[in-house]
Amino acid sequence: MGVLINIDINDFRDINPGERVLMGPGPSNVPARVLQAMSAPCIGHLDPYFLSVMDETQRLLRFLFQTENPFTIPVSGTGSAGMETCFVNLIEPGEEVVVCINGIFGTRMADIVRRLGGQLIRVDGEWGRAIDPEAVRKAVKGRSPKLLAVVHAETSTGVCQPLEDIAIIAREVGALFLVDMVTSLGGMELAVDSLGIDAAYSGTQKCISCPPGLAPISFSSGAMKALEGRNSPVVSWYLDMSMVQSYWGTERKYHHTAPINMIYALREALRIIAEEGLETRFARHQLNHKALVVGIEAMGLAMLVPESERLPMLNAICIPENVEDMKVRKALLNEFGIEIGGGLGNLKGKIWRVGLMGHSCCRKNVFLFLSALETVLKAEGANIKDGYLEAASAVYMET
Ligand SMILES: *Cc1c(COP(=O)(O)O)cnc(C)c1O
């Protein structure tokens, strides 16, 4: 035997991250029930008990997506794996693909299309604003793209993209309609079937409040037909849904070992959502968002996105002049245990991204964040107006 590499076991302590208030762009706080479900015994991925857990998880996912699509499953991987799954299965080299881009995640979609050899048709919009459907109409004029892709909740800017008009355009040109619902699913109204969406993907760690690690997806019959009718094999072996389908469907054919305990967690997180009810959950996100914005504006700070285009679960706040982004975020984390996000790309140093996602979306967190932010900003010498807590309180009192 050769020389072994040694380690000192004393270098490795128990994992003990401490408590955080997760108010960034994800992950959100995970309910204890979900963590508890994860710690149930790991059993075989073809064990009859696990197969029933899979079936229930699919039923719960169809409820959350508001779809009857048989092929609705959690992909093994984070939200980005869900994104890649949709593109890699639904487009072939040389095919035209329209991607709407007004933030980081639209940019990422375009990158994937390029890597797959698709013919990219970009529809660019201002970061911090929704994309005008007329721009999409212009881009597809005289063309017949295979797929039209849009991000419903652009987490990099806090913009909500209305889907109805773009869905109509996709139908008119005969394109599959693909929607990124990573941040919006579980936090606002979204119905895959009634919107005519062909492919949707999400992630578990945003408004579903489950740890990161799975990407729920749903394919319509049109998307399944496109997959079956491919001329070339899906270039990713792992993400080839024609094979994964044989495991999640009735055949139960081994493809890869399902992440058993992650699926327990997702099932529990979905059960919590179903217990609360979708309408109640969406109203809760709207209410806490409204109180946060009223409080922020009463402080004298401004929101990046115009009111009619704002997401409830991701609030982009403009950083006041002469305030140092990192210093404030560090103080929030170190002194209050609150995590928020900074800006990405062109918005780096210009905005804070404050999440109110799933389990993190509550009145307690709104008040904690507002008062912690005041304390930190005042220490930085910023000019903060009084009365913001009363203003936020009034929003709850009205309801
Ligand atoms: C977070 C996010 C993703 C990527 O998800 P990961 O879990 O980080 O891989 C994709 N799209 C949007 C809109 C997101 O917010």
The CATH architecture of the largest domain can be named as: 3-Layer(aba) Sandwich
Largest beta-sheet details: 7 strands, mixed
Indicate the CATH topology of the largest domain: Aspartate Aminotransferase, domain 2
Give the helix proportion (percent range). Answer: 40-55%
Count of discrete domains: 2
Tell me the total number of β-strands.
14
Bound molecules: pyridoxal-5'-phosphate
**Rounded radius of gyration (Å):** 22 Å
Question: Number of helical segments?
Answer: 14
Q: Into which percentage range does the β-strand content fall?
A: 5-15%
* H-E string: EHHEHEHEHEEEHEHEEHHHHEHEEEHH
The poorly predicted ranges are none
| Anisotropy-based shape | globular
Helix/strand-derived category reads alpha/beta
User: What is the fourth-level CATH superfamily of the largest domain?
Assistant: Type I PLP-dependent aspartate aminotransferase-like (Major domain)
In angstroms, what separates the terminal alpha carbons? Answer: 72 Å
What's the quaternary structure here?
single chain
The mean pLDDT is: 97
Q: Class of the largest domain, according to the CATH hierarchy?
A: Alpha Beta
Summed up:
With 399 residues, this protein is an alpha/beta fold. The protein has 14 helices and 14 strands. It folds into 2 domains: 32-275, Aspartate Aminotransferase, domain 2 (3-Layer(aba) Sandwich); 278-398, Aspartate Aminotransferase, domain 1 (Alpha-Beta Complex), CATH 3.90.1150.
